[in-house]
């Protein structure tokens, strides 16, 4: 058969123009296709011509063609006639007639007719209310995998008499409808956990939040923009119930970007900027972030500030960075306010001011920056824009620790260690113990800076070596010195050398040589002492010792200068 005369194809072409699918709507052109299908006696074609005449308000012709469709056993025609009876189009308004049309359609096993008949029974439209019949027809529809039937059956399980209520059964049918991407079912599932439904109140808040996110992601996968935005950001930034997943975040940002959504442009730009979830491309990042910034999105403005501050794909330009941060700060973006303060603190811009640095960072805290307390702690310690105050420094650093700012553990520990040097007795011991606990907390985090981690391990080693936390314990001190050495701390390497040089001289020299490779002056000095005094494996060699002392002296190590004066 010629494809142009194939009724199925003719109806599909007609639907395309009748409904405006991927083309301009044209119901007259749709009619020409429908009429060709109807002229072959095709029931769907007859029904569609009826639809056309209904749209044209030519009701007599509509009824004629719908009646012909009924004669060919097409149940959907009954539903359209029921709609006409309900609205009084082409006939008097008559709910009972609408009910009878629907009832006839249901005899053909049509699931849409089942759903409409169930609704009529539930609401008493054209018949007496009969919840039992409503259950029966929604169940029939659901059993035939009709998503509306599943959804409505779930609603009955939630709202009927206590004996028939079942939130678990409701979820069963909602999940089946959700598998078929039925959006109202997703919304209802989210509502059950958000409210929450009485049956779910016994479950933990975390469990409910996890389930909400699960269904929210299903909603995102249906193309819902707010859900896409929420899911993309949660995967990008992480949340209380969602681990960071930059690959998934990037994929969702791409979908949003394709939909020309601002958050999509921002998120995809950020992903390109740092290489999160895929390739790094500073040029693409800048283009996408500029597009989002042009729409007034302050997060994108702040990222552009970072691009210019750090020189990502451009020449570093603190003044241009300041411009973008300032634009974002005018919209109260907390991290932009923070970075404006840091530009002043680091003297990276003209007319930098400690007072302005403090003011911007203080405002950043008020607007919700979790990093602000960390910097306020540093400012109070150093007297940046405010008088020095160890008390206020401690207060802000402790708040930063509560905000999970890892670096605050290290800074607070160093502050406690320094303060401990100024007191004695129990006060000293208390501060040392505080320092120990926070150094250790800092070392547990994988995100700490390696140089600070090495210093933290070294400080702990000193505490055990000198007995600041409890009685001196050389074994424990050696463990921490070796740990600090692995992290690259030269002073720790020297301490390990001193501990081992008598009984394990070969092993000890390895640590000392590593410290010398880092050009630590004390390491050069210690090697000078080693050759001056000799050891069980090395004869004294004053000439070689002098070479090492000279090297240490050139690095301005005073003990080496003093030693040379005595040679």
Describe this structure in words.
72% of the residues lie in helices and 0% in strands. It is built from 31 helices and no strands. The longest helix has 20 residues, at 425-444.
Name the descriptors:
567 residues; mainly alpha; 31 helices
Count of separate DSSP helical elements: 31
Helix fraction?
Answer: over 70%
Classify the oligomer. Answer: single chain
The fraction of residues in strands falls at: under 5%
Please write out the topology.
Elements: H1 7-19, H2 27-38, H3 43-55, H4 59-71, H5 76-87, H6 95-106, H7 111-123, H8 131-143, H9 147-159, H10 167-179, H11 183-194, H12 205-221, H13 225-237, H14 246-258, H15 262-274, H16 282-294, H17 298-310, H18 318-329, H19 334-345, H20 354-366, H21 372-382, H22 390-402, H23 406-420, H24 425-444, H25 450-466, H26 474-486, H27 490-500, H28 505-517, H29 521-533, H30 542-554, H31 558-566
Helix pairs in contact: 1-2, 1-3, 2-3, 3-4, 4-5, 5-6, 6-7, 7-8, 8-9, 9-10, 10-11, 11-12, 12-13, 13-14, 14-15, 15-16, 15-17, 16-17, 17-18, 18-19, 19-20, 20-21, 21-22, 22-23, 23-24, 24-25, 25-26, 26-27, 27-28, 28-29, 29-30, 30-31
């Amino acid at each position: 058969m010629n494809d142009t005369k194939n009724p199925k194809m003719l109806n599909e072409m007609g639907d395309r123009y009748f409904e405006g699918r991927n083309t301009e709507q044209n119901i007259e052109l749709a009619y020409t296709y429908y009429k060709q299908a109807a002229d072959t006696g095709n029931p769907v074609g007859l029904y569609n011509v009826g639809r056309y005449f209904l749209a044209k308000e030519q009701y007599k012709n509509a009824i004629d063609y719908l009646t012909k469709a009924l004669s060919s056993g097409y149940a959907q025609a009954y539903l359209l006639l029921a709609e006409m009876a309900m609205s009084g189009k082409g006939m008097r308004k008559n709910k009972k007639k609408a009910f009878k049309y629907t009832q006839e359609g249901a005899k053909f096993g049509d699931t849409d007719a089942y759903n409409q008949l169930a609704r009529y029974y539930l609401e008493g439209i054209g018949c007496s209310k009969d919840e039992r019949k409503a259950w029966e027809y929604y169940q029939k529809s659901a059993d035939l995998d009709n998503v509306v039937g599943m959804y409505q059956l779930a609603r009955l399980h939630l709202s009927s008499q206590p004996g028939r209520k079942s939130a678990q059964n409701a979820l069963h049918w909602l999940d089946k409808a959700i598998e078929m991407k039925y959006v109202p079912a997703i919304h209802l599932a989210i509502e059950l956990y958000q409210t929450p439904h009485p049956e779910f109140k016994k479950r933990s808040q975390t469990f409910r939040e996890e389930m909400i996110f699960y269904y929210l992601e299903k909603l995102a996968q249906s193309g819902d923009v707010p859900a896409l935005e929420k899911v993309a950001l949660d995967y990008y930034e992480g949340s209380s119930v969602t681990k960071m997943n930059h690959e998934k975040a990037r994929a969702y940002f791409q979908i949003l970007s394709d939909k020309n959504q601002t958050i999509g442009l921002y998120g995809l730009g950020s992903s390109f900027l740092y290489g999160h979830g895929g390739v790094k491309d500073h040029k693409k990042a800048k283009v996408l972030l500029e597009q989002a910034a042009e729409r007034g999105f302050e997060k994108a403005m702040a990222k552009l500030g970072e691009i210019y501050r750090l020189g990502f794909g451009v020449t570093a330009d603190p003044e241009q960075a300041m411009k973008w941060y300032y634009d974002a700060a005018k919209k109260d973006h907390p991290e932009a306010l923070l970075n404006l303060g840091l530009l002043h603190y680091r003297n990276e811009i003209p007319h930098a001011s400690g007072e302005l640095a403090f003011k911007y960072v203080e405002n950043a805290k008020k607007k919700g920056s979790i990093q602000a307390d960390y910097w306020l702690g540093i400012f109070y310690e150093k007297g940046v824009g405010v008088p020095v105050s160890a008390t206020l420094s401690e207060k802000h650093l402790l708040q930063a620790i509560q905000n999970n700012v890892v670096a605050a553990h290290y800074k607070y520990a160093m502050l406690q260690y320094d303060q401990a040097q100024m007191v004695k007795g129990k006060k000293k011991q208390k501060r040392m113990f505080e320092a120990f606990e926070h150094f250790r907390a800092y070392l547990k985090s994988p995100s700490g800076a390696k140089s600070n981690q090495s210093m933290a391990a070294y400080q702990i080693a000193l505490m055990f070596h000198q007995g600041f936390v409890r009685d001196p314990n050389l074994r424990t001190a050696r463990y921490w010195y070796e740990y600090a050495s692995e992290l690259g701390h030269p002073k720790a390497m020297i301490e390990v050398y001193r501990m081992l040089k008598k009984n394990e001289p070969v092993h000890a020299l390895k640590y000392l040589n590593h410290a010398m490779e880092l050009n630590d002056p004390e390491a050069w000095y210690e090697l000078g002492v080693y050759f001056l005094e000799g050891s069980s494996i090395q004869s004294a060699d004053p000439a070689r010792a002098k070479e090492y002392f000279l090297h240490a002296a050139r690095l301005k190590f005073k003990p080496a200068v003093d030693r040379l004066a005595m040679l």
